[in-house]
Amino acid sequence: MRTKTDQTFRNTELDTIKLFAALLVYTTHFISHFQPEYFKYWITFPTKAVLCGITGKLGVAFFGVLLGYFAYIGESKRSLIAYTLKRYGYFVFVGLFVNTLYCVWLKRPLFSAVPESLRIGADLFPGYWCMQEFLFASIIACYIKRDNWSFEKKAFLILLLFLIGQVWVPICLLGTLLPELVESAYFKNKPFRLLLLIISFFSIQRPENTLTYILDGFFAVIVICIVENSEKAKKVLSNKVTASLGKRSMAIYVIHTLTYSIVGQRLFDHFLRDSGFEFVLGWGICFLIICALSYPLTSFFNLYNKLFEGAYAYCRRKFPSNDRLEQPRQKS
Fold first, then answer.
1. Distance of alpha carbon 311 from alpha carbon 175, whole angstroms
2. Taking a C-beta distance cutoff of 8 angstroms, is the pair 291, 256 a contact?
3. Residue 276 region, left (φ>0) first, then alpha (ψ -120 to 50), else beta?
4. Among 48, 187, 247, 251, which lies 20 to 30 A Cα-Cα from 102?
5. Which residues of the chain fall short of a pLDDT of 70?
6. How much is the pLDDT for 94?
7. Which 8-state DSSP code applies to residue 316?
8. CB 42 within 8 A of CB 208
9. DSSP character for 185?
10. Euclidean distance between CA atoms 13 and 66, whole angstroms
């Protein structure tokens, strides 16, 4: 796994994992909306042996761990304040877009999208329920990187957060452990990797609760470490199509609910039955439309990064600060 901080390189196999995570979230929501009785296959044999535990929350756990990882290895030359403003602004920018769409769809005043976006809330778009935790976790991960924390110190913080009742912030921070875990001797051992994968897979096959979500986070870490230590897995997951879609997972995530609620509903109302093969066909059609929309949406969301970079460069020229504030702290 590359641990360079300049983000010149990107692990394309991790982008594909993000796509699979988005698929888990989308599929769970799609079934919940149109055919919730299909979840019987998650709790009855023989399908339970494979499907139990494979839910949208597992997808969110993968998103969280990878968010923590990318925040940890990302740009560390800026001040923490600048990084915080950039991350907060991005979540507000995306939230303002999707919340405005929901206001139009739900026939609510457009202005109500503004306060909801500023607080990164989920009253309009339920899928934003985890974004506050993701924001906090990315800021903490950036601070940890700048302060050059040891593996033991990072692990202690994660354990402490779990013990005081936090869930998604420490799950995201598990991503800060990935550089060391991937290079550990344990994950270089194939029999150990297989045994750990089997044990962790069966550990998530339980009813959803706080403990399940924590186990989902550890399962995500194990899967990522295994992939990063398998050349065959990396080769399969690094194909251009899935990696390209994985880079657009944020757009897929924020648009998927509206898409299947509008398009899927009309498909099942007028053209398809919401069962059997036609249900799967409707699922596929909606996902193709979501993927198509994700390309222009990602370009639109990236406008924020360009605007921020321009504003940041202007402020640096206009109000030069002490250079020491722009450099990560070094260990004494």
1. 30
2. no
3. left
4. 247
5. 1-10, 75-77, 321-332
6. 96
7. H
8. no
9. S
10. 12
Asked if residue 176 lies in contact with residue 223, where contact means CB atoms within 8 angstroms, the answer is: no
Torsion of Cα atoms, 122 then 248 then 143 then 57, to 10°: 50
CA-wise closest residue to 38 among 291, 283, 272: 283
DSSP letter string over 188-252?
Answer: G-HHHHHHHHHHHHHHT-S-SSHHHHHHHHHHHHHHHHHHHT-HHHHHHHT-HHHHHHHTTHHHH
Query: At residue 290, what are phi and psi to the nearest 5 degrees?
Result: -60, -45
What single string gives the DSSP state of each residue in 80-141? HHHHHHHHHHHHHHHHHHHHHHHHHHHT--GGGHHHHHHTT--SS-GGGGGHHHHHHHHHHH
With a CB cutoff of 8 Å and minimum separation 6, the contacts of 43 are 52
User: 326: part of which helix (H) or strand (E)?
Assistant: none
Report the C-alpha gap between 180 and 198 in whole angstroms.
Answer: 22
* Token digits of residue 273: 């039955």
What is residue 332's DSSP assignment?
A: -
Return the H-helix or E-strand segment holding 155: helix 151-163
209: tokens are 């609760």
What pLDDT was estimated at residue 316?
A: 79
Beta carbons of 142 and 88 less than 8 angstroms apart? no
- Helices H / strands E in the chain, number of each: 16, 0
Q: Which amino acid is at 142?
A: C
Tokens standing for residue 117: 């976006």
